Amino acid sequence: MAVDHRNPLLARHAAALDLFTDRVHRITPEQWEHGTPCTDWSIHDLVNHLTAEQLWVPPLVRDGATTGSVGRIFDGDMLGPEPVRSWDTAAEAAREAFAERGALGRTVHLSYGDTSATAYCSQMIADLVVHSWDLSRAVGADERLPDDLVAFSVREVTPYAAELEASGLFGPPAEPPPGAGVQTKLLCLLGRKP
For 5-160, where are the alpha helices, taking DSSP H only? Predict the structure, then answer.
């Protein structure tokens, strides 16, 4: 399904998926067990996390499912013996679900309550962007992220950055150095050490 690039949110979501996909395709076979800036996660764990996140999109956005009705089917290893193909398949399914006619006008039922599909898509973009940096650093790829996606992600996560730290999934925010660029500010906001 072609993404409607006239919709800025869908265009950003597609770009964020493409960014992470590019980094996944750079992983060499021996790197899958290497560490990442997410201290408890290997590269395999990081890609598995993002793959599971994408697999949630079709049932939540397209089917109107709840996290309770989906249950735990996306827990565990979602990558299997062909991790790159598993990522590609999950990413395409998420892209198609958000791009369906009327999808962004729907309500999704997340673990913390109901929210708009546009808010959910925005959260997914920010998650893809910051984890693209994590994966870039882990595999030795270019760490520079697209300015538009970085600026969008800063606007997205700033209101709830403290909640992310409280979740235990992100480190405490760090003070960016004087004159830091927007990407450094994003990474510091989410507990990364650029």
Answer: 8-24, 43-57, 67-70, 83-99, 117-139, 147-157
Three-class secondary structure of residue 166 per DSSP: helix
Q: How many residues appear in the chain?
A: 194
- The SS3 of residue 115 is strand
User: In the chain, what are the domain boundaries?
Assistant: 18-26+36-189
CA distance 41 to 159: 26
Measured between alpha carbons, how far is 44 from 53 in angstroms, rounded to an integer? 14
pLDDT in tens, 32-58: 999 999 888 999 999 999 999 999 999
pTM: 0.93
What's the distance, CA 21 to chain centroid? Answer: 11
